[in-house]
Design goal:
Length: 107
């Protein structure tokens, strides 16, 4: 029975908007909401990480991890009243985190 309950929750999370998921993640620390938000932007983060890293797989993984840290930061700091969609804000935050890593590596 418990597995069906988890599947139902996952299906419900997929139907919520990014902004609703952010509110859930902040209100009760819903790990399901955080995982869903991360999965929604993970393709973009992986694409950008590959651009920063070039051909080195290890570097790509480092940039991808740094980008996901940026997404976690975006969940914590997002303000819907500023007029931007969460996905836009999260992707920009991920890029900024990767830029910081790039600058640290190239000092």
């Amino acid at each position: 029975m418990k597995v069906r309950h988890c599947s139902l929750n996952e299906a419900l999370l997929k139907e919520l908007s990014d902004e609703e998921l952010v509110a859930m993640a902040r209100a009760d620390g819903s790990s399901g909401a955080v995982v869903e938000l991360m999965s929604r932007v993970s393709g973009f983060v992986g694409y950008k990480a590959a651009q920063f890293a070039g051909a080195a797989l290890q570097d790509k993984q480092d940039f991808q991890q740094q980008g996901l840290i940026g997404v976690l930061n975006a969940i914590r700091t997002y303000n819907a009243d500023k007029g931007a969609k969460f996905s836009t804000y999260a992707c920009r935050s991920a890029i900024n985190s990767m830029i910081s890593l790039y600058e640290q590596q190239n000092k």
